[in-house]
Automatic annotation (TrEMBL):
Its main location: membrane. It is found in: Membrane. Residues 1-24 form the signal peptide. The keyword S-adenosyl-L-methionine does not apply. It is a multi-pass membrane protein. It comes from Crotalaria pallida. This is Sulfite exporter TauE/SafE family protein 2. The keyword Cell membrane does not apply. One of its GO terms (biological process) is protein ubiquitination. One of its GO terms (cellular component) is Cul4A-RING E3 ubiquitin ligase complex. Keywords: Membrane, Signal, Transmembrane, Transmembrane helix. InterPro entries: TM_pro_TauE-like (IPR002781). Belongs to the 4-toluene sulfonate uptake permease (TSUP) (TC 2.A.102) family.
Length: 471
């Protein structure tokens, strides 16, 4: 509670000074009253500075802070993979606070780490089927198709907002939205847990009722024998059907086409420093024209996908992974809107969209297993695009990025195996929802605390804390 009060006090002081910088001299008594907070912050920065010096001397090779950060990232990746989210909200604070990296380097390494974890998730989810959903894959490719164009558009819009908004506003928005989203996810997880407990209780009650008399015992025995014969036949038939994993190559091709279209725009446009494959004025007319092309591109892809689904099936769009408890089918237009919102917020906060779209899918009524698999599939496309952009823009420490991505790859496999085994043993898919809640809660604490410390240091140093131009 004390840490939360300190963070709130820092944010209030920062906002007051951002809107009224002329009163900086009048707040000197207040600053002196909370000198202990400044000393605490200086200790953290001293740790970060020492770690950064060590890393610069060793060129990001094996060092104490980097090994510690790698261990913590392994744990964070294993927890994040269970919920199908990237984990960038944990990787960036760990690399900046524990390893002493600057934000730019930490963001580039985080993109590779998220990519490594998402590759493990996609490999497992594409190669396995679920008897619960009729032997189909847990990945809902329809939701991914409807969401991906708008998510990529939202990321571009969010990145521009990130350049314009001051740090204190981004930190406050991050804390507010993720706190609301975490509370909703926890509530949804408790609902799933309650429903699972109710089903277990009904099954136990029915078994108890069936064994109360000698006559029912005989009927139950015959029923069990019939079910036993049926269970011997089902694995043979089911194995033959499930042994062949049906890969929707057409849908994967459309997703790849969407990815390549947006990536081509990024290559042609370059960044605000003029780094691109064609000569272009930084933030000039051509830069903004190419940036605006993403809007009709996302609209065209989404409209075409929606119209194609309407031609091939009924007007009511029912995702494969929708929960049976829902009374109404999901509206197909809600997924592009959710993806646009998640992409924008992810671009503003500098994290992947998986952490943001996963709670939204759970709120709509998509089952936890399908939500985790579909989110990890969508994160794969967004994270690979970010990683390739860092490479093309001359990223350093590529060897370290590959090592960390392999660590997250292994950690994701471990996390998936542990969670799947737990679901099989206890029959509670709600464990996936709780893993998402844990990652989001930790992200709130780490990202908000780190952002508050950065804001305080900017205020003390007299850095401009208002709105900025995108270029």
């Amino acid at each position: 509670m004390g840490i939360f009060s300190i963070i709130c006090l820092i944010l209030i002081l920062t906002i007051m000074m951002a809107f009224n910088p002329s009163n900086a001299k009048q707040t000197q008594p207040i600053i002196s009253d909370i000198l202990s907070v400044d000393l605490f912050i200086n200790k953290i920065y001293q740790w970060g500075s020492e770690a950064q010096i060590i890393l610069q001397e060793t060129q990001l090779h094996m060092s104490g802070p980097m090994v510690l950060a790698g261990v913590l990232c392994f744990i964070a990746s294993s927890i994040s993979s269970a919920g199908g989210i990237g984990g960038g909200g944990l990787f960036i604070p760990i690399l900046t606070i524990m390893a002493g990296l600057d934000l730019k380097t930490a963001s580039s390494l985080s993109a590779f780490m998220v990519t490594g974890g998402s590759i493990a998730n996609v490999m497992c989810n594409m190669c396995t089927t679920s008897p619960k959903f009729g032997g189909k894959s847990l990945i809902d490719y329809d939701i991914a198709l409807l969401s991906e164009p708008c998510m990529l558009l939202g990321v571009s819009i969010g990145v521009i907002c990130n350049l314009v908004f001051p740090e204190w506003l981004i930190t406050i928005l991050f804390a507010i939205f993720l706190t609301w989203s975490t509370s909703k996810t926890c509530y949804r997880g408790l609902q799933f847990w309650k429903n699972e407990s109710e089903k277990k209780r009904k099954v136990g009650f029915e078994e108890l009722e069936n064994g109360t008399s000698e006559e029912t015992k005989g009927l139950v025995q015959v029923k069990k024998e019939n079910e036993g014969l049926k269970s011997l036949e089902e694995p043979l038939l089911g194995a033959e059907e499930n042994s062949k994993v049906r890969v929707p190559w057409f849908k994967l091709g459309v997703l790849l086409l969407v990815w390549l279209s947006f990536f081509s725009i990024y290559l042609l446009r370059g960044n605000k420093y003029g780094q691109s494959i064609i000569p272009m004025e930084p933030c000039g007319v051509g830069y903004w024209i190419l940036s605006s092309v993403q809007i009709p591109l996302a609209v065209v892809f989404t409209t075409w996908i929606v119209l194609r689904k309407e031609r091939h099936q009924d007007q009511n769009f029912i995702p494969e992974g929708s929960c049976l408890s829902r009374n109404k089918p999901c509206n197909k237009h809600i997924f592009p809107l959710m993806a646009l919102l998640a992409g924008m917020l992810g671009g503003v906060f500098g994290i992947g969209g998986g952490m943001l779209i996963s709670p939204l899918l759970l709120q709509v009524g998509i089952c936890p297993e399908v939500t985790a698999a579909t989110c990890s599939f969508m994160v794969f496309f967004s994270s690979t695009m970010s990683a390739l952009q860092y490479l093309l823009l001359g990223m350093e420490h590529i060897d370290t990025a590959l090592i960390l991505s392999m660590i997250c790859f292994v950690a994701s496999l471990v996390g998936l195996l542990v969670v799947q085994r737990a679901i099989q043993n206890y029959g509670r898919p709600s464990l996936i929802v709780f893993s998402v809640s844990i990652v989001m809660a930790l992200s709130i604490v780490l990202m908000t605390s780190f952002g508050a410390i950065q804001i305080w240091r900017d205020y003390i140093s007299g850095t401009y804390m208002g709105f900025k131009l995108p270029c």
